[in-house]
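## tool: complex_structure
## caller: assistant
## args:
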Amino acid sequence: MSAPVDNAPSTPVLPTLRQVLARAHMRLILFAVLMAGVTLTVTGVLVIRGYADRNLALIARTVAYTVEPALIFDDMDAARSGIAAVAASESVHRVDVRDPQGRELVLWRRPGDGIMTMIEGGIANLVAPSPATVEVRRGDRLIARVSVHGGAEGLGRFILSGLATAIACLVLTLIATWALARRLQRDVTDPLGRIADVAHEVRANRQFDRRAPRSHIREVDQLGRDFNALLEELNDWHSGVLSQNRMLERQATRDALTGLGNRAMFERSLPATMAQADALNLPFAILYLDVNRFKPVNDTYGHDAGDAMLIVIAARLRAGLRVGDQAFRLGGDEFALILAPGVGPEELEAIKARILDGMRQPIMLPGGQRVDGSLSIGSARYPQDSADARDLLRHADAAMYAAKGRRAGGRE
Amino acid sequence: MRSIFFYLLLLIPTVAFAVPTIQPAMLPLGTGTDATAAGTARMVGAMLEYTRWPTARPVVRFCLAGNARHAGRLADISLSNGAQLQFSSVTGSASARSEGCDALYIGRLDPGPMQGLIADTRGQPVLTIAEDDPDCRSGAIFCLLYAPQTLSFQLNIDAVSRSTVRIDPRVLRLSKGGY
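## result:
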């Protein structure tokens, strides 16, 4: 198995919102718990340490007071029982009484300390070192020194329980963070992700019908609704641009009066048809047409009448076309046809005859007059007459003028 | 060489724990010809330490009565408050009151005169110590109890209550059959 290759190495892998939020929460909570825990523990340790110190000193003084007569009477049994009476109920491990020369007079140990007590005592000794030592004096005479060890299990217990509480709090807060992150995921990240999906769809696939879902968080919902409104506007704008583009294209390629293609479109269509014919290895033809009596009609009945005449002629031309044939108005009273590839000489002649036949009916002008709409047609065949577009046009043009001349000559 | 030193260091706690703790029963008497007298002097000194007279005594008048066998070293006593001992004897018809005694040490004496001597100190600031009254019936405040190797004492609460001297209550715990 190969790892998926990152095909966009320039963009680093960005963390998700949820990761960022979870990380921020985690840091914040860790910081807060640590701060609170450390502060409380240190304060507590200091306070308890103060009490423990004083407690130990108090125990030492009590022991000293209790054992003093026993020491004077040299009665070590009584001294030991006195120490036991005082120390047994306290958290004291060891009491030793030494004479001024340092010789041990009495040693008392708490019997049977458990392992937990040892651990707690060890921790306590780290922060509050024992023993507390008190001198036993009678007047000016130093009789003995009493040392009391331990006495701070409370401190050890406090530190241990503080640690346990801190860990428990940490676990609790981690669970809470997890739940919070899940909630945020559900309420914020997922809706944002869906909005992002919609945005991506719109950008990549132009799917303007997609909409961001509603959310029950005000800001996210507002964002979604604004986004949807923006999408609506974008959709309108997009379709507006499309229709405008279509209109502009129409304007650029269509003759406004007749609705046929204009000269620009003809000049584009001709090479395209030539390429198509080459590819199919079929011949095709172009026709040049000219209205015989346009100028007199225009001059006699006005431009409106001329326009009406051109519209009728265009309609008749279009009616005579086969599927794939194209009609153009090149300007003034000049028209052109491109016959789709596959047209033979006989069909060409038949089409020309059909067009001329279609124009035999007089044209009714808006003023009620009837005029003759006859045409002069010149044709050129590709590739028989020429394989060059310009040459082909010239050929068709010449043929048309020849036809016009024949017609004029025939009439006169 | 270093490892030996290390093991020696390891041994130190073991040795420390192995040392037996001193457990003397009562006041141990030393050895020597006057061991009992020295022990007696220490104990009497301790008793004087914990005795309070109605007014402080810069000089404690220490009277001896009867045939005291272990009083030979009493002169060794020195009190922590710096009070000096002034010794005198009570003989014949004299009483502790007439002699102005602050403490009365009674040696071997017949029960009759002994009780008389002690009865005379009732209501007086006199500390009475009986050397030869193991049953402590004479009415003395302190009775010394001699055993072959040790010396202990008994405190007579009744006598303390009748006297105007005050005994530190902590001493009570140290007496035979202490409370």
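## assistant note: The CA atoms of residues 22 and 52 of chain B lie 31 Å apart. Helices of chain B lie at 2-18, 35-49, 96-99, 111-119, 157-162, 169-172. Handing back to user.
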